[in-house]
Input
Amino acid sequence: MTKRTSRESSSSKPIGNARDIRIACYHRDNYKLKDIKAKALACFVQIAIRRDIRECIRMMPQIDDPRVQIQGYQQIYNKLDDLNQLIRQRHILDENDLSTIDLSMCNFPTISHFFVAIEKHPFVREATTEELCKACSNINLLVRGSHLGDYIPGKKNNIDADDVDVFTLVDHMTPSAIQREAGMDASNISKEKFLIVDMGAPVTILKQQFLKLLDRQAPLKLNNLADWEDHGILPYLDLCQWEKESGIKIKAHTRADLVCRNSVNGYTAKKIDETIRPYAGKLMDEDGPVSHALTMDAMEEFWQTICYVREEKPDANAEMAEEALARWFPRTYPFNLQDLHRSIEVSPEREEAMSKVIEWMKETLRLYSLKERIRKMNIDQPGTGMLRAAEGLQSERSNRFPSHRDACEDRAGEVSEDQAMPVRSPMSEICEIALRELTSTQHSKRKAGF
Output
């Protein structure tokens, strides 16, 4: 384990010079984003790394909990000093940089989930009861906490008002209309809509009305990635993290000199407070619309790269795809060996079965390049590469290794018995999907083609 360096004294004087050796490395000119071809994937990786660094520090008091350990925060924490030093030196980290400190993108839960875990919620689906109840609860709180609460019938105190009275006020309004009326910023209004669809209506009418509804939605333009370098998004986040870790304050004008271009008469300090700070905060909010938009942009580049390798898209951006493969894909894609090793650490009794799965994964990594793995493995949904590859490969190696289903049955259900803490473990999701698909009589298996 790498020992964490001690915090500097919080009584140190605030830094007032942008050339101070402690923070000069965070100057905006060191963060070269404009020449990157796979810009969305690169920006997604940078935000994910910084978000998971913050989260691992927050989770350390609970590090003995297996549900925390299996997500990888212990490995990040062990390498935190090395990571911080790497950010100071390289600024924009890729898979090759992480390998120099014996880490991979797969060590970071957010990135691991993006590349490995199945997309649990399709873009078009039927809402669950839990989601409907949560939406109603959010509307209830929004109405009570905004000026709309002044119009709740029968009660003077918003807190004491009955839920019936709240919904009587807004029961003829859509959630989007309520959010707008309550004064929410447009960028914070959820892009998820709960629709009433009569499945018995003619398909042509359903398509016509659905497309009309889409035409009325403003395009989601929340991430102008070309401006990130000028606006200093990444150096701002790194400065904030350094300030928090060191306990030393940075004066506003010094931060502005490092982060913003053309600092004149303190304008940039104001710009940070009014634009950069709130925007960076939205990027770090994993569940917010700005972060969601960045993930969707990254997913688009991910699939363009997959199509390019498979030669399924003649007009694919070759430069973008080649850079993505070289820098922004985990080097073991579509396998996540780190997650499997963590599973063994949390549950040593599973070591024999899981070690054999890891063994044939390593054999495959040795025999086939990243492009060959993408071409030959049946990755037909976002993030299902590990499952599809395992299913196809295992059928050809069944005489040498235990079945993938047996390994999954050993692992499935091991975590998440206590739902007090939400767990987003890629391995547990893969096991659930594997068990469901491999036991389905309607599932059509397709070989990986080796």
User: Anything to note?
Assistant: Residues 129-193 form one domain. The chain has three domains: 1-60+204-331, 129-193, 337-438. DSSP finds 22 helices and no strands in the chain. The first helix runs from residue 39 to 59.
